[in-house]
Write a structure and sequence with these properties.
By secondary structure, this protein is mostly helical. Helices cover about 65% and strands about 0% of the residues.
Length: about 80
Amino acid sequence: MSRFRQTDPGYAPADLAIFEEAFEHACRKLGLDPYPSDDMHYKRLRDEIAAAIMNAARLGERDPLALSAFAMTFGMRNRHLPKR
């Protein structure tokens, strides 16, 4: 199940699919498994990626590659995510 469907029910299904695509793309680029695991460090990283995507989406961005790039840039600038 998508992390975005659970946390942001006010968005249209098409928007949620875009957010999920952006999330999976960002995780792949950063070498993270986009699916849940018990590792708290990776859970925190995935949560930060999702939050950054939602912040950009709230401003109206809907391009999955732009959302993904925003999430990766935000994380790297704030030293939360590895640079790749």
